[in-house]
Specification:
heterotrimer, A alpha/beta (135), B alpha/beta (319), C alpha/beta (558), A: 135 residues, alpha/beta, Rossmann fold, 5-stranded parallel sheet, 18% strand, C: 558 residues, TIM Barrel, 2 domains, 9-stranded parallel sheet, 23 helices, 51% helix, 7% strand, globular
Chain lengths: 135, 319, 558
């Protein structure tokens, strides 16, 4: 039998902010939706996040940030993926962002941004609709 | 360059993708594995297993640091269980090794058991071959020692390490059930905790009661460690080295091991292929469903039904 | 509290009333299938004397300022002096934050509270590669004593107290504050304030860490010893449940883990050879005020009673002040929503009211935009006004513990106490909080609770207005505070300038001495103060700790 390809996701916390409640809840949510989730742990540089994503061959990176450094960290991840020829890895973000940063981040290549209060099923549905496992 | 060549030259992206294809059972991956096979057999494979929470990943992390300091390249395969409810998994071992992620000499890959018969055993063995072919000197495979799959995985390693922590009396008892036989080295981690000496004694007693273990002349050492504080790691690596030398010390052991390994690998591969090609097809066929209904209605019994289905599939008599 | 006869009578009447109730809901069903608090603690339809019949007024509730302090620690509570309105502030450079501090003091705030940026909180300078993009984002950037001097310029630090929310490098920031005061001619005996300095809750919840738990405990104990001997008006630890709750714990978990942390700090200080009554009066606490009104009030009352019992029974304290649980409260950041942000003013008001009815000593009220970014001046002012309205218009501060004696509140207080003591027993059995953390026990309990709560919101079992009910499509714009983009570069240049003008030989000597002291068992506060006075940077000092004590990394519990 050809087993159905599984979606693999890296849940990552770039930067120094340690608030990982969201990242942990999202990791569990993805697991319960049937995805394979690799968790990076805290205090990662964008370089470490990208290296992990490539070694783990994930389809998507979910970045979490709650302390305001997203404008540097998120675009840097996209940039590094591009440098490594891994543009096919979808990047999305969750956390606290001022409304006006969202279009800027999307322009920088972050495919979607989830702010506090987003229902979990919406986050899962977005993955199902926007992330296709490679094949 | 084709994929196999890329992998042999150490291309990370190709390695990562092939392991994914193996995991997803993509037909083409088999062809690449065939091409890679001549380039395998150079790496030394260490298996590490133990219950959840005994500190395996931290131990692996520290071992990687020391191996790198010795100039050796390392591949790590960390296997975590798939949730039986959702089919998903959280692969969290990487967190404790993530500081090596920027080191080009280290390749870390998390794998989920995916919960079907023996599948992970086969995937992991193939992944070992891939990391071997890419030129890693040492490959460490970490599994949670709970099921037969995990035991099978570590069994294919050159040296197998069983990790325990003090005060897990019940666990030591459970070890008797099978995992004890496969350990070449025992490590009591978190040895600053109460009861470390007792755990060491319990294991020693168990090993000594089990004479047949010494048939190849290796008596498993029992070490203590505190992986978090990097204590006892060098000693573990020394014992791995000793075990390796022991394995290489006589032609008899070497040829016996080679035979065992090829035998194991091939029989596992056949089992896996039969499950994938034959079993899954039967289970997913309409006939399987109708047969189920017939048994429920009392029209037939499961013994007869089984023989009928299997013999039809194999086109010869079932045992 | 009730005679046997009256209880029997009430019992009969209650049974009758429950029948009436059941008939009524048979016709018009209850609006929920199950009533429970935000922490999922079940709630009955009615509380009566039957629910508190086993309580003894004198032993369990008592009077304010009397053991077990259920009703409050001070004799006159808010009739004497209102709580300290202490708004957490910090943004951009030291100069920017100094301006905000002046504004808040002019608006009637009675204490200062400093928020630092992530690099400062983690013990890195602005020029560290780990700090890129983070400077001044979630608080003020402090690299050297020079920044600390600017931060408090013109502020009456001999009259108002200062709280500094910082943990791994708390000793360093405190040393800078002491050095800054002394440069202004204010003796260390005269300054008052608090450093958060609570590493256990960092390992459990907020995950700002530097060194492993054991050396972290040593550094904290150094500060406790130093405060006891040399800075008597300072609270060297603010034992914090706030972040435990923000990480998704229940109210009982917040209560239990915080007090268990407190027990660990007391034990460490006793091991150091300090007498319990010499330091315990300076331990302070910091709790969250979440949205479940009564549960929060009961939590504060239970906390006071539990701590009094712990200090008197377990640690044999004699001084009543050692038994006082004095606490700061912040309204729950995690209860705020990005959707319909003006609703956050109302949430914060309710939470602030609960903290006041629970007898807090100081209070921070969140600004409506805090779920989006750092607060603007206007939003921070509304948050401060919220406290002023509660204090001076609502009348709730006119009598002490106004909800004391409420059947529901007293029952809930007792329930929470019992459940929290059960947790503490479990932690004791594991060998105390440090051992429990090493086993990831509190981390996992919190992760489970957080996930469960999120599921309840998703299934609409719990309502969050504007999020899963009464949702509106339109976005309500709020003004957002911007941090200037050049700040990072400017701060790096500024610190380089400080490095160029200091005596680098003296800095090197001071750091070497610190390293030697760290390897011995010396109290590290003196060598840290010596180093900051030579303008050693925060990271230069913290690198010494990392070198000697090792670095703690995320164990990755989910």
């Amino acid at each position: 039998m050809n087993q159905k390809r599984k979606i693999r996701i890296l849940v990552a916390k770039p930067g120094l902010d340690g608030h990982d409640r969201g990242a942990r809840i999202i990791a569990r949510t993805y697991r319960d939706a049937g995805f394979e989730v690799v968790y990076s742990g805290l205090h990662q540089t964008p370089e470490e996040v990208v290296q992990a994503a490539i070694q783990e061959d994930v389809d998507m990176i979910g970045l979490s940030s709650l302390a305001g450094a997203h404008m540097y960290l998120f675009p840097r991840v996209v940039e590094l993926l591009h440098e490594k020829g891994a543009d096919d890895i979808v990047v999305c973000g969750g956390g606290i962002f001022p409304e006006e940063d969202i279009p800027k981040l999307k322009k920088a290549g972050i495919k979607e941004l989830f702010t506090p209060g987003t229902p979990l099923d919406k986050v899962v549905k977005w993955v199902e609709e926007n992330v296709k496992p490679r094949g | 360059m084709d994929i196999a060549e890329k992998i042999i030259s150490g291309d990370i992206r190709s390695v990562a993708r092939l392991i994914r294809d193996i995991d997803d059972n993509v037909p083409g991956s088999r062809e690449v594995l065939k091409d890679l096979y001549p380039s395998t057999g150079k790496a030394y494979v260490v298996g590490i297993t133990g219950s959840p929470g005994v500190g395996k990943s931290t131990l692996v992390d520290q071992m990687v640091t020391h191996l790198r300091a010795d100039g050796k390249t390392v591949g790590v395969l960390a296997v975590d269980p798939t949730s039986p409810f959702s089919g998903g998994a959280i692969l969290g071992d990487r967190v404790r090794m993530q500081r090596h992620s920027m080191d080009e000499g280290v390749f870390i890959r998390s794998m989920a058991t995916r919960g079907y018969f023996g599948g992970i055993t086969q995937s992991t063995r193939s992944a070992i071959d891939v990391l071997d072919a890419m030129g890693k000197d040492c490959i460490i495979v970490e599994t949670v020692g709970v099921g037969q799959d995990e035991i099978d995985i570590v069994q294919s390693a050159d040296t197998t390490i069983i990790v325990l922590v003090p005060g897990m009396g019940d666990d030591v008892q459970a070890l008797k059930a099978g995992i004890l036989e496969i350990g070449n080295i025992f490590v009591i981690n978190k040895a600053d905790r109460e009861g470390a000496d007792r755990t060491v004694n319990d294991i020693r007693l168990m090993i000594e009661m089990d004479e047949k273990r010494y048939k190849d002349g290796w008596k498993p050492p029992i070490l203590t460690a505190q992986a978090v504080f990097d204590k006892g790691i060098i000693e573990i690596l020394d014992e791995i080295d000793k075990h390796r030398k022991h394995l290489e010390s006589s032609a008899k052991i070497q040829s016996m091991r080679k035979y065992e390994k090829v035998r194991n690998d091939l029989s596992e591969m056949i089992k896996d292929k039969i499950i994938r090609d034959v079993f899954d097809e039967i289970i997913n066929s309409g006939e399987f469903e109708t047969t189920l209904q017939s048994i429920i209605k009392g029209e037939t019994d499961p013994y007869t039904a089984c023989d009928t289905i299997v013999s039809k599939k194999l086109k010869k008599g079932a045992a | 509290m009730f005679t046997k006869e009256s209880i029997e009578k009430i019992d009969v009447e209650n049974k009758k009333w429950q029948q009436v109730y059941n008939k009524s809901v048979a016709k018009t069903p209850e609006r929920l299938t199950r009533f429970s608090s935000v922490s999922d603690h079940p709630v009955q339809n009615l509380y009566t004397p039957l629910d508190i019949k086993d309580l003894d007024y004198s032993n369990d509730i008592g009077f304010p300022n009397q053991y077990p302090f259920t009703r409050g620690v001070q004799p006159s509570m808010y009739r004497g002096r209102l709580w300290t309105m202490r708004m957490f502030a910090g943004l951009g450079s030291a100069k920017d934050t100094n301006k905000r501090f002046h504004l808040l003091v002019n608006e009637g705030q009675t204490g200062l509270s400093t928020a630092f940026d992530m690099p400062t909180l983690m013990g890195y300078d602005t020029d560290s590669p780990k700090s890129v993009g983070e400077c001044g984002r979630c608080g003020v950037a402090i690299d050297t004593l020079k920044d600390m001097e600017i931060l408090f310029e013109g502020l009456p630090i001999d009259r108002i107290t200062t709280s500094m929310t910082i943990n791994p490098p708390a000793a360093v920031m405190w040393a800078m504050y002491i050095a800054m005061a002394e440069k202004r001619g204010i003796r260390r005996e005269a300054i008052g304030g608090t450093i958060q300095n609570d590493m256990l809750k960092e390992f459990i919840a907020q995950k700002t860490f530097m060194c492993p738990p054991k050396p972290s405990m040593r550094l904290i104990t150094d500060t406790v010893e130093f405060a006891t001997k040399e800075v008597p008006r300072w609270n060297p630890i603010s034992i914090s449940g706030y972040h435990i709750r923000e990480a998704g714990s229940t109210a009982v978990q917040e209560l239990a883990f915080t007090l268990a942390d407190g027990i660990a700090y007391v034990e460490a200080a006793l091991e150091r050879g300090l007498a319990v009554d010499s330091f315990a009066p300076r331990l302070s606490f910091f709790f969250n005020s979440h949205i479940d009104f009564f549960e929060e009030i009961a939590k504060y009352r239970a906390a006071r009673r539990m701590w009094a019992k712990i200090m008197s029974e377990r640690f044999k304290a004699k001084d009543q002040r050692s038994m006082w649980l004095r606490f700061h409260t912040q309204t729950a950041g995690c209860s705020l929503t990005a959707q319909q942000p003006y609703n956050n003013v109302i949430r914060t008001s309710l939470e602030a009211l609960a903290a006041v009815l629970g007898g807090t000593q100081s209070l921070h009220t969140n600004s409506l935009d805090e779920v989006l970014a750092l607060p603007t001046e206007e939003a921070a002012t509304i948050a401060l006004r919220t406290q002023q309205i509660i204090a001076e218009e609502s009348g709730v501060a006119n009598t002490i513990d106004p909800l004391g004696g409420s059947f529901y509140i007293e029952r809930l207080t007792k329930d929470m106490e019992e459940e929290a003591f059960e947790y503490i027993k479990k932690i004791d059995d594991m060998g105390g909080m440090v051992a429990a953390i090493e086993r990831n026990y509190p981390q996992l309990e919190i992760a489970d609770a957080a996930y469960k709560y999120q599921k309840q919101i998703d299934s609409k079992e719990k309502t969050v207005v504007g999020v899963n009910k009464y949702v509106t499509e339109e976005e309500i714009p709020v003004e957002i505070l911007q941090i200037e983009a050049e700040l990072e570069e400017k701060q790096i240049q500024w610190t380089n300038q400080v490095k160029d003008t200091r005596d680098n030989k003296k800095v090197k000597n001071a750091l070497e001495k610190l390293g030697e002291s760290a390897q011995r068992d010396d109290n590290l506060m003196h060598p840290i103060i010596d180093a900051v006075k030579e303008y050693a940077t925060e990271q230069e000092i913290c690198d010494v700790f990392r070198e000697v004590f090792g670095v703690y990394r995320d164990p990755g519990v989910y």
